[in-house]
C-alpha cells in the first residue's frame, strides 16, 4: 500500500472507530508501529486534526467535526464495486435492479474509454450462480421497508402468501434478521398473529408497510442469543481417501478439521452445527468416504439408503 493510500485509510479508520492505538493501526495496515508514528506526523503537517492520548488507554482520535472530502476511486476499487454489483444481481437483492444499473453506469463513467471497455469485457467473463429460488418479482418497497424497520425499530405489517393453504394473511411482524440462505432471501421475525418466531420467504410477501408499534434492540439481541444457545454442536469423525482429501481440503466443511494421516486414507475430525453436508458427502462419495461418528449421522445414512432401496426395488 502506498503512503498516501495509507494516510487516507488512517483517517477513515479513525472516523469509523473513534479511537485506535498505534498497535491497532499497525496491525490493520500491516506495517510497524514506527511507520504509524511517522504517518501521524505527516497527517499533523497536513493540518488533519488528530488528537493523541498517552497512557494505558491511549491512542489516536480525529476530531468529530473534521470534514472528510470525497475521494476519487482508483481503478481497482471501481472494479471491486462492479463485481459486488454483479454479486448483488446474482442473489437478486429485492427492489435493487434500477439502483444496480444506475450505480454501474456511474462507476463506468468514472473511467476513461479504454479502461471502461476493458472492465465491461471482464464483467462479461465473470459468472456467479448462487440462486436456487427464482421469484417472479418482489412487491414494491419490500427491501426499503425492511431496512426502514431496522433503522426506526418499527414493526412491519405484511400480507403473506402461504402456498400450503393457498391463502394470503395480514400479519404484524417484529423483524430480527434478513438473510440470503439456501439460494433465496428470508426474513426471520416474531409473528404477532401466530405468537411465535417465524421465517418468511421474501418472494411470498405480497404487501409491506411500517407499523406504528415499536420494538427495541434488546428484542433483537435476545433472539440472537437464543439462536446461538440453541445451536447444537456435533463432532463429525470420518475417513477419506487421500486423493479426495487433497481435492477437498480447502472446502468449508473440512477447512478447520483436525487431520491424521493413515496409510491409504486420512482421518478428519470436524466440529459443526449441521450434519446434512457430511451425510451428502458420504452418500455421494460412498467409495472414498466413511463416517465413523456421530451415531446420528450414521443412522441417517442407513435410513436414507434403506428407503431409497425399498423405493426402487418395488
Automatic annotation (TrEMBL):
What InterPro entries is this protein classified in? CBASS_pafABC_assoc_protein (IPR051534), DeoR_HTH (IPR001034), HTH_11 (IPR013196), WH-like_DNA-bd_sf (IPR036388), WH_DNA-bd_sf (IPR036390), WYL_dom (IPR026881)
Gene Ontology molecular functions: DNA-binding transcription factor activity
Under SUPFAM superfamilies, the record lists: Winged helix' DNA-binding domain
Domain HTH deoR-type span(s) in chain numbering: 3-62
Q: Which Pfam families match?
A: HTH_11 (PF08279), WYL (PF13280)
Keywords of the record, alphabetical order, are: Transcription, Transcription regulation
Checking PANTHER family in the record gives: PROTEIN PAFB, PTHR34580
Q: What is this protein identified as?
A: YafY family transcriptional regulator
The protein's organism comes out as Vallitalea pronyensis
Amino acid at each position: 500500500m502506498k503512503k498516501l493510500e495509507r494516510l487516507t485509510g488512517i483517517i477513515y479508520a479513525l472516523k469509523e472507530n473513534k479511537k485506535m492505538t498505534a498497535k491497532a493501526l499497525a496491525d490493520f495496515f500491516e506495517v510497524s508501529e514506527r511507520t504509524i508514528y511517522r504517518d501521524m506526523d505527516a497527517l499533523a503537517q497536513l493540518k488533519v486534526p488528530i488528537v493523541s492520548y498517552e497512557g494505558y488507554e491511549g491512542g489516536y482520535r480525529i476530531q468529530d467535526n473534521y470534514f472528510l472530502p470525497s475521494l476519487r476511486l482508483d481503478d481497482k476499487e471501481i472494479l471491486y464495486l462492479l463485481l459486488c454489483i454483479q454479486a448483488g444481481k446474482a442473489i437478486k437483492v429485492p427492489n435493487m435492479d434500477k439502483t444496480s444499473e444506475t450505480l454501474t453506469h456511474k462507476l463506468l463513467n468514472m473511467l476513461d474509454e479504454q479502461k471502461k471497455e476493458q472492465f465491461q469485457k471482464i464483467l462479461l467473463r465473470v459468472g456467479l450462480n448462487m440462486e436456487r429460488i427464482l421469484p417472479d418479482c418482489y412487491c414494491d418497497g419490500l427491501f426499503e421497508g425492511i431496512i426502514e424497520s431496522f433503522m426506526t425499530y418499527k414493526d412491519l405489517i405484511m400480507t403473506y402468501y402461504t402456498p400450503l393453504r393457498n391463502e394470503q394473511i395480514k400479519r404484524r411482524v417484529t423483524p430480527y434478521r434478513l438473510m440470503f440462505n439456501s439460494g433465496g432471501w428470508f426474513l426471520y421475525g416474531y409473528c404477532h398473529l401466530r405468537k411465535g418466531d417465524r421465517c418468511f420467504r421474501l418472494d411470498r410477501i405480497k404487501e409491506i408497510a411500517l407499523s406504528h408499534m415499536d420494538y427495541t434492540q434488546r428484542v433483537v439481541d435476545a433472539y440472537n442469543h437464543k439462536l446461538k444457545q440453541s445451536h447444537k454442536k456435533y463432532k463429525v469423525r470420518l475417513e477419506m481417501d487421500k486423493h479426495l482429501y487433497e481435492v477437498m481440503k480447502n472446502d468449508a466443511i473440512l477447512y478447520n478439521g483436525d487431520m491424521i494421516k493413515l496409510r491409504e486414507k486420512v482421518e478428519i475430525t470436524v466440529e459443526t452445527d449441521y450434519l446434512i453436508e457430511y451425510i451428502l458427502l458420504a452418500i455421494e462419495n460412498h467409495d472414498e468416504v466413511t463416517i465413523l461418528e456421530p451415531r446420528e449421522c450414521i443412522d441417517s445414512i442407513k435410513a436414507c439408503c434403506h428407503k431409497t432401496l425399498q423405493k426402487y426395488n418395488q
